[in-house]
Design brief:
The complex is a heterotrimer of chains A (309), B (382) and C (581).
Chain A (H helix, E strand, L loop, with lengths): L31 H13 L3 E5 L3 H5 L5 E2 L5 E3 L5 H14 L6 E7 H6 L2 H9 L4 E7 L34 H7 L4 E6 L3 H12 L4 E7 L3 H4 L6 H10 L6 E4 L3 E4 L9 H4 L10 H33 L1
Chain B lengths: L1 E5 H11 L4 E4 L6 H13 L5 E4 L3 H14 L4 E5 H6 L1 H9 L5 E6 L13 H4 L7 E4 L3 H18 L3 E6 L7 E5 L3 H7 L16 E2 L5 H34 L6 E4 L6 E5 L3 H14 L4 E6 L1 E3 L3 H8 L4 E6 L9 H10 L8 E5 L9 H13 L8 E2 L2
Parallel strand pairs in B: 2-3, 4-5, 5-7, 6-7, 11-12, 11-14, 14-15, 15-16
Antiparallel strand pairs in B: 1-8, 6-13, 10-12
Helix pairs in contact in B: 1-2, 1-7, 3-5, 7-9, 10-13
Chain C lengths: L17 E2 L1 E2 L11 E5 L2 E2 L1 H5 L6 H9 L3 H8 L6 H7 L3 H5 L11 H11 L16 E5 L3 H12 L3 E5 L8 H4 L8 H12 L4 E3 L6 H10 L2 E4 L5 E2 L12 E3 H6 L3 H5 L4 E5 L3 H13 L5 E6 L10 H9 L3 E4 L1 E7 L6 E11 L6 E14 L2 E4 L3 E2 L30 E3 L10 H19 L4 H4 L13 H6 L4 E5 L19 E2 L2 H4 L7 E3 L2 H8 L13 H5 L5 E3 L5 E3 L9 H5 L5 E5 L2
Parallel strand pairs in C: 4-20, 5-6, 5-8, 6-7, 8-19, 10-17, 11-12, 11-17, 12-13
Antiparallel strand pairs in C: 3-25, 9-18, 14-15, 15-16, 21-22, 23-24
Helix pairs in contact in C: 2-3, 2-19, 3-6, 4-6, 6-19, 7-15
The chains are: A alpha/beta (309), B alpha/beta (382), C alpha/beta (581).
Chain lengths: 309, 382, 581
């Protein structure tokens, strides 16, 4: 269980990395999605083809005739990030260009909702590319409508009293498919994120990375708090940083402090209406999920021990 | 080489010989034998391409599009519900200007649920920017797949090769299957643009702002679809030179100075030939206009074939609620601004695979000859 | 047409949108006038440090295992890190921002580790265009050593005069070996003299000698310290059994003094008193009772807390709230009468007075009393104009100059906290003062700008290197982003156990092991000083922060949308947002 050396983040290969995004894009000031895209592309390098679908990320990648990406990219349909990326991946292999990585960027809507069927299909076929879900917890590009990634109690324009259903656990859905590699990552921990992307790049098959990308506009939050809220999401254990290989082998890649969830909730306007009981309820859910995660980790460790003895 | 093949198997064989590189597909009756045969070929090691057993037709088409943009020759096949599910992606494919060839087996669209032949599924996609070729028999289906790749790759627009459920798809015919080398001479390896170039990266097909940027792309597509008319005829001519068989965008049989011309498409055309012979033996100057290419619509050829014709009966194995049979609509609109103005009688026959016999067609001919004017709405054949 | 296989009917490049034009045509910097400003600021530890050590910079080197680099950096402001790292009262730790998070960083222990593990030669700053002066430094204690060191680095020629046989002053003759081993002191002093300073030992500078020196040299610095003990004369006056602190500590025969004594009382609660008590503990029999009695309350003795703790561990008793009223004995001391007292400290002058507390008399058996209540300087050699009759201290202004032109002073000789690090500061201050004067500048025009925050010290490197750090803005805890840090226990140096150590003079504190030092240095937040963590650079959504070097960043104002993520995320408050044009 490797913990990040607190406060000093340096990647050994950092000197080799270049930025594959350009300034001048139309992201809102303080946008979390673009930070994630930038970090993912840094980690992948210039030999990358990106798939984008209707979402904030595609507008950030820019409209004709501009592009904010320095890698080739393609704009597919909303629910088709997965098969679109897979199609490119298959043909690149046929052409002998297997050293080119394919990455699909999809929002939470395109992953948890309309794209879930295709995502399940692609993982079943273990198609070779990296699927990055940029999760800002609602349909933000179309103006803050709830998705199944919107957390319970969160305000959106279509759930003005707070959403009544819980957020889907997409990584566990991936794990249930026995995907070769699935992981959570946060823009507050760029080294961890980039390491996971690089690790994914070297694995054959479908890899899924779930990045929580705070959205000042949709979360009703000051635009300078994007990274702090990302850090808090991790440190409160709301969004633990972990990875699972082949649906079985769990590893927590960063040990969170376990700060109280209210520190995270109170900086976001979309939670302003919460009552004490609701906050306690959310805290209880987090505690339970954290225990569940540790149990899954334990199962894996027990497996290892059993195999060794 | 002479072989006995069903329409589905004929298509599969053509796809193999055309060396399609990536074949994403999903099963649906009555297309399944295409999919199964291709899988069998892959397992036998004789298929040059890769099958991808996707989880829905929508994903199949999405995968075809991105694979084609990457530079591969691709194929898929579907029918009815599957084709309808793909609808969004059909627009997407023609907008992306990718030369996908898709086999479509006409089957009725639910509801009511059934499995018989009905052209409404493909015709409902006529506005999606795909070329559409309706095949009469299995030989033609095979030949059209080969031609379709050449046509599509020249004009960079996708095309559907369409056969009837069961009448074509499952009925076995003797047919000629050329050797690989002959096919290769006619249809060389695909030389498609590889849109994802690391050295000269572009964001492909991203959002365009405002009408001014959108219109030129759509207009170019329109113009290239017009060019396709010339290309289709050229390719067909060249195919005839190579293989001895040609089809044209339409085929007119005995239409000069005919009193009545049947207009049919698909497998019904074979039946119509028998009815035409029979009627002619009975003294009626009956002709037949087979429409093979539906998109781009061969307006000029239709006008030319119907010049001087007395009456026209269009037999549609399809229906557009609120109007009439779709071939009938298209024929009327092709003639409207011209001097060729025979009365056109619309008939709806054969939906869901109801058998259209030569006797039924002869009956239609008698009825048309005896009716002074066509009705406002089509006549439904019982 | 199609017969020509390669004829293309359509233009591949225009049939679908292919976007290649860079978005850099959109100057999104116009969206907001707010832009980040990188400006390093003062950390509270540095503000509090009398010698103005660049603590964040130094610890940053240690985190990389670069003890040599750390030492080189320390030597720019402090010539005696091995000494301070053992004896300083560490005001840095008292002001450390990490105190508000978990516990202060062990800065003193780290300074010691750096001196122990690092190797570096002090960097000469001399500018060939500067004037070279001849300077006499009288007294080779920490003040004199500091003055000599900095003057030499600035390019001047220094000659030192020391009355005792060896240099070091209170470092050698006052601080016991279990706190400051002689080998360590030797290494520290050698590093200074290796710069080329001439030393005359065994030479007491009287009035006449001073006259010669005055004529011979351009400037004179006095660092002769305060060696005259403050006396208590209350009854019995037996020199054998009534001793004084520094005299006792510097007495070669102190073991004989302790021989046979059973009840040793030490008057005083300061560092000298503690050293006296602990020295006596080592020299006396194991069953001898050693007691410190001070006017302050127990728990409020002014000595460094670590010293008091170690003394208590070694079995030294402490009684607070009393002052001696009478030494009782026939020929030799037998007991002491104490009366209750209360300390009242004047906050502004730092002077204190003792107020009586009635009804609290205490008699303590004593066969040896050592009085350590303070020392006064010997000022016979000096001209009257520069000596304050009341305190016996030499007058100096805020730049270390005495009222007489050309004469400077520092250390315990002047009015300041009687501590090693404050002495070092005074020597540095006077050295810079002399250097400026020698080159035709007025210290008052330059030196105030070098002051570190509201603190006592000045930064010589700020003057020499014209660094970008804002010396006036001190970073507060609330301005830091500590989310990436977690609460951990500090790494403490290894200390030998009391039972064993109280019998000899081997160093009590073995210091931190290298890896522990590196870990402990990692606890430093580096308040106000960039460590090149790259968070601002990596996390800018608009790729508007450029990396120019290891710790240098610049802002691309054409694209920065003013979101302020960089400023808010920076763990150490290096970036502030400002409204531009």
């Amino acid at each position: 269980m490797g913990a990040i050396k607190a406060g000093v983040m340096k990647m050994e290969d950092e000197k080799m990395m270049v930025d594959l995004m350009r300034s001048g894009h139309m992201a809102c000031p303080g946008c979390g999605v673009v930070i994630a895209m930038r970090l993912v592309l840094r980690a992948l390098g210039r030999k990358t083809v990106a798939v984008l679908i209707p979402s904030c990320s595609s507008i950030i990648a820019a409209t004709y005739p501009n592009s904010s990406l320095k890698v080739p990219a393609f704009h597919g349909t909303f629910e088709s990030a997965a098969p679109t990326a897979a199609g490119i991946s298959y043909v690149l292999k046929l052409q002998g260009k297997d050293d080119i990585s394919v990455v699909a960027f999809a929002g939470d809507g395109g992953t948890f909702d309309i794209g879930l069927q295709a995502l399940s299909g692609t993982v079943d076929r273990n198609e070779h590319y990296i699927y990055v879900c940029l999760d800002n917890e609602a349909y933000m590009n179309t103006g803050i409508q709830a998705s199944s990634a919107t957390p319970e109690c969160a305000w959106t324009i279509t759930t003005p009293l707070g959403r009544s259903a819980r957020k889907k656990n997409i990584v566990e859905i991936m794990a249930a498919h026995r995907i070769p590699y699935a992981a959570t990552a946060s823009i507050g921990y760029p080294q961890d994120l980039m390491e996971k992307v690089q690790k994914a790049k070297d694995i054959r098959g479908t890899k899924f990375i779930h990045v929580l990308t705070p959205c000042p506009t949709g979360w009703r939050m000051a635009e300078n708090l994007t990274i702090k809220s990302a850090m808090l999401s991790v440190e409160t254990r709301l969004f633990p940083l972990y990875e699972v290989s082949n649906g079985r082998k769990y590893a927590i890649t960063y040990e969170p402090q376990g700060l109280p969830i209210n520190e995270y909730l109170q900086i976001q306007g979309r939670y302003r209406h919460l009552q004490e009981e609701q906050i306690a309820h959310i805290q209880a859910q987090i505690d339970e999920e954290w225990e569940n995660l540790k149990k899954r980790l334990q199962i894996h460790n027990d497996d290892l021990i059993a195999r060794e003895s | 080489m002479r072989e006995l093949l069903s329409g589905n198997y004929a298509i599969a064989e053509a796809v193999r010989l055309a060396k399609a590189q990536l074949i994403p597909a999903y099963p649906i009756t009555p297309q399944t034998p295409i999919y199964e045969r291709l899988s069998e070929m892959e397992a036998q090691g004789i298929l040059p391409g890769i099958m991808v057993r996707v989880e829905s037709e929508h994903s199949a088409m999405a995968m075809c599009i991105s694979a084609s943009l990457t530079g591969a020759r691709v194929f898929t096949a579907t029918s009815s519900q599957g084709l309808a599910l793909m609808h969004e992606m059909l627009h997407n494919a023609s907008g992306n200007r990718v030369p996908i060839v898709m086999g479509c087996v006409n089957r009725v669209l639910a509801v009511p649920w059934s499995f018989g032949s009905d052209q409404t599924d493909t015709l409902a996609q006529r506005d999606t920017g795909w070329m559409q070729f309706y095949c009469e028999d299995n030989q033609e289906a095979f030949d059209t797949v080969i031609q379709a790749y050449k046509i599509s790759e020249a004009v960079m627009l996708p095309s559907m090769v369409i056969i009837d459920a069961f009448f074509n798809s499952h009925f076995i015919e003797p047919m000629e299957v050329p050797e690989q080398a002959m096919i290769d001479r006619f249809l060389p390896q695909a030389d498609l643009p590889q849109r994802f170039d690391i050295e000269n990266p572009a964001f492909v097909s991203n959002v365009v702002t405002a009408g001014a940027q959108f219109v030129p792309f759509r207009k170019t597509g329109f113009e290239d679809m017009e060019k396709a008319k010339v290309v289709i005829k050229e390719v067909d001519k060249e195919f005839k030179e190579h293989f001895g068989r040609g089809y044209g965008m339409v085929e007119s049989l005995h239409t000069e100075e005919a009193q009545l011309v049947f207009i049919t498409s698909g497998s019904m055309t074979s039946t119509a030939r028998v009815a035409v012979d029979s009627l002619r033996n009975k003294g009626l100057r009956v002709g037949l206009l087979k429409i093979k290419t539906f998109r781009p619509f061969p307006s000029e050829e239709v006008r030319s074939a119907l010049q001087g014709v007395g009456k026209v009966a269009v037999i549609d194995r399809n229906i557009s609620l609120g109007k009439e049979g779709i071939f009938c609509q298209e024929v009327k609109s092709a003639l409207y601004n011209s001097k060729v103005q025979p009365p056109i009688y619309g008939y709806i026959a054969g939906l869901d695979g109801l058998d259209v016999t030569p006797e039924i067609l002869e009956g239609i001919a008698m009825e048309v000859m005896n009716k002074e004017k066509p009705d406002e709405v089509p006549v439904w054949v019982q | 047409m199609i017969r020509k296989e390669n004829l293309k009917l359509v233009d591949f490049d225009t049939i679908i949108p292919l976007s290649r034009v860079s978005t850099e045509v959109f100057k999104t910097g116009q969206w907001s006038p707010r832009k980040p400003l990188y400006r390093e600021k003062l950390s509270p530890c540095r503000e509090a440090c009398p010698v103005g050590n660049d603590i964040p910079g130094v610890l940053s080197c240690v985190t990389k295992g670069d003890f040599d680099g750390a030492l080189a950096l320390i030597l720019q402001e402090n010539p005696l890190p091995g000494v301070c790292g053992r004896v300083c009262y560490h005001p840095c730790q008292v002001n450390c921002n990490r105190l508000h998070f978990d516990k202060a960083v062990e800065v003193r222990g780290l300074e010691r580790s750096i001196a122990d593990y690092g190797y570096a030669t002090p960097r000469m700053w001399n500018n060939p265009k500067d004037n070279k002066a001849d300077i006499a430094v009288i007294g080779s204690g920490p003040a004199g050593l500091s003055a000599a060191y900095f003057l030499t680095l600035l390019g001047h020629k220094v000659t030192m005069f020391e009355s005792r046989p060896e240099p070091g002053g209170v470092l050698r003759y006052g601080i016991p070996e279990y706190r400051l081993p002689k080998e360590v002191l030797k290494k520290e002093i050698n590093r200074i003299f290796a710069l080329g300073i001439h030393l005359n030992v065994g030479e007491y500078v009287d009035r006449k000698r001073l006259n010669d020196i005055t004529n011979q040299y351009d400037y004179v610095f006095f660092g002769t310290g305060a060696w005259l003990p403050q006396r208590i004369e209350i009854g019995l006056e037996n020199r054998e059994t009534i001793r004084y602190g520094l005299d006792f500590l510097s007495d070669e025969k102190k073991k004989a003094v302790c021989k046979g004594k059973k009840n040793v009382v030490v008057i005083g609660g300061g560092d000298v008193a503690v050293d006296v008590a602990r020295t006596a503990r080592r020299l006396c029999d194991p069953d001898t009772r050693i007691t410190m009695v001070a006017p302050e309350n127990e728990g409020e003795f002014p000595a460094i807390p670590e010293g008091l703790l170690e003394a208590a561990e070694e079995g030294i008793h402490m009684i607070g709230g009393y002052r001696p009223a009478q030494f009782i004995g026939k020929e030799y001391l037998e007991k002491i009468k104490f009366v209750g007292t209360k300390v009242e400290r004047d906050q502004t002058t730092g002077r204190y007075k003792l107020l009586p507390v009635d009804g609290k008399d205490l008699f303590v058996d004593a066969d040896l009393v050592i009085i350590a209540i303070g020392q006064l300087p010997v000022t016979d050699s000096f001209l009257e104009e520069i000596v304050d009759k009341d305190s016996s201290k030499v007058f100096v202004d805020e730049f270390g100059a005495t009222p007489m032109a050309g004469f400077y002073a520092g250390g315990d000789l002047v009015r300041q906290r009687p501590a090693v690090v404050d002495a070092i500061l005074s020597g540095k201050r006077a050295a810079l003062s002399i250097h400026l004067k020698a080159n035709g500048y007025e210290p008052k025009e330059i030196m105030p700008a070098l002051r570190l925050g509201r603190g006592p010290s000045l930064s010589i490197s700020a003057y020499l290197e014209d660094s970008q750090i804002d010396l006036t803005k001190v970073v507060e805890f609330a301005e830091l982003n500590t989310l990436l840090y977690r609460k951990v226990e500090p790494y403490y140096g290894i200390k030998s156990i009391a039972e064993v150590r109280k019998t000899d003079f081997r160093e009590v504190n073995a210091g931190l092991e290298k890896h522990a030092a590196i870990e402990e240095a990692g606890r430093c937040f580096s308040c106000g000083s960039c460590i090149g963590c790259d968070l601002c650079f990596l996390l800018c959504p608009d790729i508007s922060i450029m990396k120019e070097g290891d710790k240098t960043y610049s802002v691309n104002k054409d694209y920065c949308k003013g979101c302020s993520i960089c400023a808010t995320t920076c763990p150490r408050y290096v970036i502030e947002m400002e409204d531009g044009q």
